[in-house]
Amino acid sequence: MASKKVLIVYAHQSSGSFNSAAKDAAVEVLTAKGCTVEVSDLYAMKFKATATAEDITGKVKNADHFCYGEETKLAWEAGKLTADITEEQSKLTEADLVIFQFPMYWFTVPAIMKGWMDRVLTLGFAFTHEKHYSQGIFKDKKAMLSFTTGSQESMFSANGINGDMNVTLWPLQNGILHYCGFQVLAPQIFWAPSHVPSEARGTMLEGWRTRMQGLLGENPLAFTPLDCFEGEKGYQLKPEVHEKHAAKEFGLTVGIHLGKALPPNNQMKAGV
């Protein structure tokens, strides 16, 4: 891991929180391993969560019909994005690994972290209409989610009231991280730390510390490569790929399931 650069995008308001402890553990262990670690503490930074025209300095191309994606692409090309965005983009450009540390809110990231994703991962900088998914701009970088839940693990199972956590993670891990090309490492999930004894929380943190010893060497989660789809036909799966998996028990991934049973732990464990 020597000389690797790690960016931790952190979203929790309390320094006494479990999320803070998980973030601190990551900084400590990865720094000791020889990594350069930088933390974007979004609440401390008062990071703006809303993606608006104010993210662009100077005039926009079409104020009457403002299109955030196209306008920020032009602003990025012209160096006219606001400083808070360009500073985060610089950190991301340098990073080999990005860790998103957060408490799960309403089955997703907190608004301030979603705002970071909306505003920092701009068209042109993080993706284009040609460079996305397995051929994405950040295909040489790794990213992962590390988060706490309010619900017990059993509640996020295929038979649990919240539904399968693999399904919950698909929009974040496929629709944002993998879409930008990131190699997505398996998530680090801390199940309901506020509902367990302090000893159990300590065990969770030790597990995280142990995992970080070899984190950058881990294999990423499996996603269906872009060349398995026909771009000129609405990005449908190629017939030969479909036929190859016709007799198999499970679909390709959580989202591209082919009407079959979902592959177990597809969004939670590598190599499945």
UniProtKB/TrEMBL annotation:
Entry cofactors: FAD; Zn(2+)
Domain Flavodoxin-like fold: 4-193
Top class in the EC scheme: oxidoreductase
Any Pfam family the entry gives: Flavodoxin_2
Coiled coil regions in record: none
GO molecular function: dihydronicotinamide riboside quinone reductase activity; metal ion binding; NAD(P)H dehydrogenase (quinone) activity
Keywords: Cytoplasm, FAD, Flavoprotein, Metal-binding, Oxidoreductase, Phosphoprotein, Zinc
Claim: NADP is one of the keywords in the record: no
EC number of the protein: 1.10.5.1
Alphabetized InterPro entries for the sequence: Flavodoxin_fold, Flavoprotein-like_sf, NAD(P)H_dehydrogenase_qn
Role: The enzyme apparently serves as a quinone reductase in connection with conjugation reactions of hydroquinones involved in detoxification pathways as well as in biosynthetic processes such as the vitamin K-dependent gamma-carboxylation of glutamate residues in prothrombin synthesis.
Family indicated by similarity: Belongs to the NAD(P)H dehydrogenase (quinone) family.
Protein name from the UniProt record: Ribosyldihydronicotinamide dehydrogenase [quinone]
Gene: LOC117544396
